[in-house]
Every structure is written in C-alpha cells, then in structure tokens.
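With this grant's support, we have paired protein sequences with backbone structure tokens. One protein thus recorded is set out beneath this paragraph:

_____
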Amino acid sequence: MDIAQAEDLEMEGPPSLPLHSPPQSSLCACGGSCACSTCHIIVDDPAKFDAMPEPSDDENDMLDLAFGLTETSRLGCQVKMSKEIDGVKVRLPSMTRNLQAADFKGAKKS
C-alpha cells in the first residue's frame, strides 16, 4: 500500500501509517482491521504466496467480498513481511469494492 501511495495511485481511504507499523494499517477503508477488502492484493509469485502464513477466517471472509479474487489473493493489511517473502511482488486488482463487515450488520436475511 505504501507503493500505491508513493506512485500516486488512486485508492480509497485516508493515508495512514506504513503497512505493518503498529497498529497495522494501510490505505483501506477499515484502517487495517480486516473488516473490508479495499486493500486486496494479488501475489505474483506462488512460491512467495505459499511462504506466507495461512489467512485467518476473518481475512478469508473479507476476501470473499473482493473484486477479481485469485488463488494468490490476500489482504495487504494482514500480510506480515518476513525474510521468507522478501522481494515479494504484488499487483492491485483493476477495481475494488468498498464493502465492509459493518455493511452487513443488522441486515435482514431473505
């Protein structure tokens, strides 16, 4: 997300702390709390993707709302950088959906 900001790419949400700075946050609508899918990234290298810890159930739930979901999709705010994934390259999807978990609270089920 820092790269997107540095390259002046349009993204939703206010600029905040660098990715993985405590508290974790990014350029996403929820501020890095794993409650939306606006920081959806696509990891280019499957080996780097496999070296990442498994996504949590909450992250998988939010990824289900992401536009252009792929086998190597993650939420940028949930990826912790490590030596194992040093040099990882990611892409941003062509669009984003600004859906948050809060959008579904209290919604009537049909």
Notes: The radius of gyration is 14 Å. DSSP finds three helices and three strands in the chain. The helical segments are 2-6, 46-51, 57-63.
